[in-house]
Amino acid sequence: MVKIKLTHLIYLYFLFFPITAYSSMYENLTIDEVVNESELVFEGKVVNLEYKTPSDRNRVYTFVTFEINDVIKGKYVDKTIEIRYPGGIKGDQVTSVTDMVIPQVGEEGIYFIKSLTKHYIHPLTGWAQGQMNIVTDKVGKKRVFSVSGESISHVNRLGPKRKGVEQNLSADVASGIQTSKQKDQAMLLDEVKSQLKQIVDMEEGK
Questions:
Q1: Residue 145 is part of which domain span?
Q2: Is residue 66 predicted with pLDDT exceeding 90?
Q3: pTM above threshold 0.85
Q4: By CB neighbour count within 10 A (0-12 exposed, 13-18 middle, 19+ buried), where does 56 fall?
Q5: Which residues contact 91 (CB under 8 A, 6 or more apart)?
Q6: 59: Cβ–Cβ under 8 A, 6 or more apart, which residues?
Q7: How far apart are the C-alpha atoms of 129 and 59, rounded to whole Å?
Q8: What is the pLDDT of residue 13?
């Protein structure tokens, strides 16, 4: 098994990409920033996963195909979208990146895509902060959770980032997102999307 440490991968990317491409990845962002710094925000489901080596790279990537159910921010008309994550399986070798959570087939969630044209180390804004998982409860209601499985119980708008905010690569959720270990406290999907769309409207001056 081959395991690439994050620091090594960052170094390799710095050789080929501008420093500005990584300025926001390692910070604990506010939920406003996660929304505003994303080109596309959508609710969707993972329908396919493939391991491929792009023509412009010499390492394997995981290509994840999402079926889009609802566009929360951005202009995107296709019903599916393919996003690539560094790491994957090639022959008997497995390459992984520390703190990289790759969505799996069947998973549902809200995904905050940083760019539709540029490739970053992580395709989601703020790493795990750019993903919310959706789980259907026992009575058929869709509820929203963090990547680590905690209930997202409230969404508070915080506006721009405060000065002096420490870098926190492994942050599970953006500042302003309250979580709970109680599963029944998870917000309903429509409630979360409504809060996110309000942030989008504020950004667009509506």
A1: 2-203
A2: yes
A3: no
A4: exposed
A5: none
A6: 53, 86, 95
A7: 25
A8: 42
Exposure string for 60-84, b = 16+ CB within 10 A, e = fewer? bbbebbbebeeebbeeeeeeebebb
Closest CA to 83 of 109, 97, 70, 65: 65
CA distance 80 to 89: 23
pLDDT digits (tens, 9 = 90+) for 19-52: 222 333 457 899 999 999 999 999 999 999 999 9
> For residue 73, what is the enclosing H or E element?
strand 61-73
Determine the average pLDDT of the residues in 59-72: 96
Grouping H, G, I as helix, E, B as strand and the rest as coil, residue 93 is strand
Residue 136 phi, psi (nearest 5): -85, 125
What is the DSSP-derived secondary structure letter of residue 139?
A: T
Count of domains for the chain: 1
